[in-house]
Amino acid sequence: MKRLYEIITPCHFGLEAVLKREIIDLGYEPTLVEDGRITFTGDEEAVCRANIFLRTAERVLVKAGSFRAETFDELFENTKAVAWEEFLPPDGRFWVAKASSIKSKLFSPSDIQRIMKKAMVERMKTAYGVSILPETGQSYPLRVFLHKDQVTIGIDTTGDSLHKRGYRTEAGKAPISETLAAALILLTRWRSERPLVDPFCGSGTFPIEAAMMAASIAPGKNRTFLAQAWDNLTPRRFWEDAFEEAAELEDLSVEADIQGYDIDGEVMKVARANAVRAGVGKLIHLQQRPLSALSHPKKYGFLITNPPYGERIEEKKNLPGLYKELGEKIRQLDSWSAYVITAYEDAERYIGREADKNRKIYNGMIKTYFYQYLGPKPKTFGGSLGGNTVL
What we know:
By secondary structure, the protein is an alpha/beta fold. The chain is built from 11 helices and 14 strands. Strands 2-3-1-4-7-6-5 form a 7-stranded mixed beta sheet. A 7-stranded mixed beta sheet has the order 10-9-8-11-12-14-13, with helices on one face. Helix 5 packs across helix 6. The termini are far apart.
C-alpha cells in the first residue's frame, strides 16, 4: 500500500503560479500556495516524479510536521511531539540544514537548529528504546520555515538543489539559474514550433532549457537525488519507474529553431559543451556573434534574454548604449515577442518602449525585472513560420 505525504516544493519568489501549473500538469493538486513554495499531496512515486520532472522547483521536501511556537520551550516540545520514527530510521543521520524565519518571535537560525536537533534526539531515543543514536546511516537533512510563529518542517529528498541539472559544469559571468530560466520561458507564450533566440546566452542556459522542453527531456534525468539511497520513504522501485517514464517521454527527433549568441568566444565554447551534456547539442545553434548582428528571417519568434546589468562599476557606463541597441533590434523584429530579465533600473528608458508587462523577480538576493514586450500572435499554428508566411 502506498504512503501519502504532504510534499513541499520551494521556488523563486514571484514564480509560484508557474510551479503550480507544473504540479497540476504532472497530475497532482496543489493544496497550499505560499510565498516561495507550493504544497501538494502525493505518494512515494510523486516524490520521485517531482524531483525528476519539475523544472521550476528548487527542491522537494516531505512534510514531517507543522505547529505553532512562540518560545523555544514550545519549539522543543512541539518538535519532540512529531513522530520522527515514522520518517527516520534508527541509524539515520539527521540535522536541521537550514532554518528561515519571517515575522516570527523566534528568529535565530542557529538556536532553532540546535533546539530542534535536541528535541528530535530525545524523541528518537525513546521511540527506538536506545540511549545513543549512532547516526551512521543515510542522511536526512531538514529544512524549517517559520512564518508568523507557524513552524513547518520538511525532510529534503533532493540533496543538491534542483537547478543543478548536471549539464552546467562551467558558467559565464552572472549566470541565470536553470530553474529560473525554465520558469521565465514558461511565463512566455513560446512553443517549440516558434523560433527562440537569446543574444546574450552566456553559458547557454535559456537555449538549453528551451531545447529540453521541446524534446520533453526531464530536467532531473541525468542526476541523482539524496532520497535514492533511502529504503524507508522512497524505495528504489519508485525511482526506477520514474526514470523509466522520463526515458520514454524523451523525443530527440523534434524539430526546433533555438539559437544562442554571445560576443565572448570562450563562453560560447562552454555553452556548446553544456548543450552536449544536456543532450540537446543537435537542437541548438550556438555562435559567437555581437548584438549588432542580431537578425532572423522568420516571423513570430521569441527573444528571451538576460543581458548585462552592470554588477561591475566599470560596466555601468556601457549599459545605456547596449540597451538602446537592444531596443533597436527588438523594433526590427517587429513580429516577435521579447522578454528581458535585468536588474538595470533604466532598461525601459533606453530600450525606448515601456514593457507591455513587467514582473518583479528575485534572482537570488538581486531584485530583477522581467520586461515583456508582446508581439502579434500568428493567426494559426502549424506549418512553416519562415519568411513572410502568416499562419
